[in-house]
Specification:
This protein is an alpha/beta fold and 189 residues long. The protein has seven helices and seven strands; from the N terminus they run H-H-E-H-E-H-E-H-E-H-E-H-E-E. It has helices at 3-8, 12-22, 36-43, 55-67, 81-84, 120-128, 144-150; strands at residues 26-29, 47-52, 74-78, 92-95, 134-139, 160-167, 170-178. The structure holds adenosine-5'-diphosphate.
């Protein structure tokens, strides 16, 4: 890992939970970083497409996949998710977009426009053209009302389920499950 990888990789227990909940098939990890999530999807024998714009990150991810013995399950792509998206097909899209580094924790209410490299609504809309089955890993202080709003970008609104992810007693992040990965209907009106 590089230095950034240590604070940005999804903790292993949470990544493994995402994989269990995904339902499998072909899963695209759109901002793969050093591969923490891609590896857990691959460990469940899903076909994974891991994308990152930074060739160094893909190098680390590929090496990490070899350490875990799952490299045969992952296609690594160096590229910009937004440019690649129109050419992609998948059963599930996994989004852990950059939270903007460790400063995310300083916001009382982390609004979706703070996500990088584009705001959360734009990222979600691009993902939705691939599949409505989207899993999004977000900061623990994310604006939950805005997250629920994402389900209303589609007509009819997507199923949505929100999960809090703890490491011990520390709330690390929030996962939003949409479409078939969610188990209930949206609640906003
Ligand atoms: P943070 O620590 O702020 O959450 P991350 O390091 O987790 O950020 O960012 C996730 C990954 O997203 C990084 O490895 C970065 O190279 C990658 N990335 C950024 N922009 C794009 C893009 N347009 N397409 C694909 N990957 C991207």
């Amino acid at each position: 890992m590089d230095e950034e990888g240590w604070f940005s990789v999804t903790p292993e227990d949470i990544a493994s939970r995402h994989a269990e909940r995904s339902g499998g098939g072909t899963v695209i990890d759109c901002f793969s970083g050093v591969g923490g999530n891609a590896i857990q999807f691959a460990k469940m024998c899903f076909h994974v497409v891991a994308i990152d714009i930074d060739p160094k990150k893909i190098g680390f991810a590929s090496n990490n996949a070899k350490i875990y013995g799952v490299e045969d399950y992952i296609d690594f792509i160096i590229g910009d998710f937004f440019q690649l998206a129109p050419f992609l097909k998948a059963d599930v899209v996994f989004l852990a977009p950059p939270w903007g580094g460790p400063t995310y924790n300083t916001f009382e209410n982390f609004t979706l426009d703070l996500l990088k490299p584009k705001d959360g609504y734009s990222i979600f809309q691009v993902a939705q053209r691939i599949t409505p089955n989207i899993i999004m890993f977000l900061p623990r202080n994310v604006d939950l009302r805005q997250v629920e709003e994402l389900s209303w970008l589609s007509s009819p609104p997507l199923n949505i389920e929100i999960e809090e992810n703890y490491i011990g007693s520390y709330l690390k992040g929030i996962t939003a499950y949409f479409g078939n990965t969610a188990s209930r209907l949206p609640t906003l009106s």
